[in-house]
Amino acid sequence: MSALLRATGVGKRFGGLSALGEVSFSIPQGAIYGLIGPNGAGKTTFFNLLTGIYTPDEGGFEFDGAPLPGAPHAVCARGIARTFQNIRLFASMTALENVMVGRHVRTRAGLFSAIFRPGSERAEERAIRARALELLDFVGIAHRAQEVSRHLSYGDQRRLEVARALATEPRLLALDEPAAGMNSTETAALGVLLQKIRAKGVTILLIEHDVKLVMGLCDRVAVLEYGRLIAEGPPEQVQHDPRVIEAYLGAEAGA
Amino acid sequence: MDIFLQQVINGLVQGSIYALVALGYTMVYGIIELVNFAHGEVVMVGALVSLSVIERLVSRGYTGWPLIVISVLVAIPTCIALGLGIERVAYRPLRRAPRLAPLISAIGVSIALQQIAALIWGRNYLHYPDILPKTQYLIGGAVISQVQVVILLSAAVLMAALWVLVQRTRLGRAMRATAQNPAVAGLMGVDVNRIIATTFVVGSALAAVAGTLIGAYYQVGNHTMGFLLGLKAFTAAVLGGIGSLGGAMAGGLLLGVIENLGAGYMGKLTDGAVGSNYSDVFAFLMLVLVLIFRPSGLLGERGVEKV
Known about the structure:
The complex is a heterodimer.
Chain A: E1 3-14, E2 17-28, E3 32-36, H1 43-50, E4 58-63, E5 66-67, H2 72-78, E6 80-82, H3 95-102, H4 111-116, H5 118-139, H6 154-166, E7 172-176, H7 184-199, E8 203-207, H8 211-217, E9 220-225, E10 228-233, H9 235-239, H10 242-249, H11 251-254
Helix pairs in contact in A: 3-5, 3-6, 5-6
Chain B: H1 3-32, H2 39-58, H3 64-91, H4 100-121, E1 126-127, E2 136-139, E3 142-145, H5 146-168, H6 170-180, H7 182-187, H8 192-218, E4 220-221, H9 225-240, H10 245-269, H11 279-293
Antiparallel strand pairs in B: 1-4, 2-3
């Protein structure tokens, strides 16, 4: 399998503090790839660097053979979409409208066509709506389409974030702790959803605390600790790496 | 003659102009939380550009509403270019600066535009040629002129169009998303800079129309006309709840009506001690009262769609 995303020596400092350093790994096309590590290890910082919120101080990313652009919307246009650790929906828009925003990057109509070509604008708008409804159905919340998103249940909000991200037609879907706050039934359902997404040809990068979910789902795993990559490989191999055991359980357990 | 009805009509006409201008304030505030104090000057430029076009063409035999249409078609692109330029030069570089910085930049732009306008059009009051029919219609004991009817209708059409644009189109959706959370909108593929620029385009186009209508209505203009008008429209936006489109429309109309009723009845109520020349006081009295009793404005409650 060829690499879809290649991180090469990625580093970021905040003030004098090095949040992330010398992080290199590759995500194969079509994989579910896990990024794990204790709190504060730099996982979300990595996501923010990847999606253009921060600019790396060192190193960089190659996506599908070419460097990633700097601006978030351009990164999204190249085919990387994400969800957030703390849900960030457009709270006063409906579920459907949230997903329709995700279609923005794959559609064209602007001020000019809205005023001078209302016919084509309306046709495109219908297509956006139809696709957004399909995606809501795909994640299983089509019946909540007209609900204002902040009124959705927590689990449905998480699903809505996934649908909105999928609406941008990503080749890489980056999920920041999608199982956070979910019970075991919901987490199992999430695992099924991720498999369904992968089956559609979307590569998945997953930050997750739920080790069981990660080990059961991911083809490969990278482990961060204090902003450094301490292990990388298939889950069963990483699981038995003494440095990983130490990072997760403390020095005594690893000894 | 029904004085009350007459003042209400006059107030709605004046208020619909306030509303058009207030929309420019509220859209920009909704999306980048900046009070664009230069917006009144964009209206002024719109009015004076229209006037120049009218003066140039009236001597060649053009007249009436077609001439107003031609003048607004010149004023709109001029104001759009101006609005885009202001955003690019004075606001965008300060996007991440403390909030006071772009505010001061806005005041600076406002002063600069007034002085540039004074260089182009001079410092005297300019009078518009009489090109519009003086037709008047009677409704229920009050009089409404053709100019007033056109102002009311064009403001209503523009506001309805804006509503559809914001609520029903791809662009409007991106504007609302950016207003709610610019960072997330960017990550979802919305080019935030472009959306902000488009917001200035829409606001400036409305300002151009408002400027032209003001010129047609009051038939007088000069380089300082944008200042008080801008302040009043800003008051209207705050009155309705800044950031809210419906609030700007309602606030504008309400302010116009209150001002005119105040002007119409003040002399009688105070036995001539305070006359209609105090009408401006009402606008700012309203602002003070709203800020004291309802700081979020009439429609400015949480959850109202902002842009």
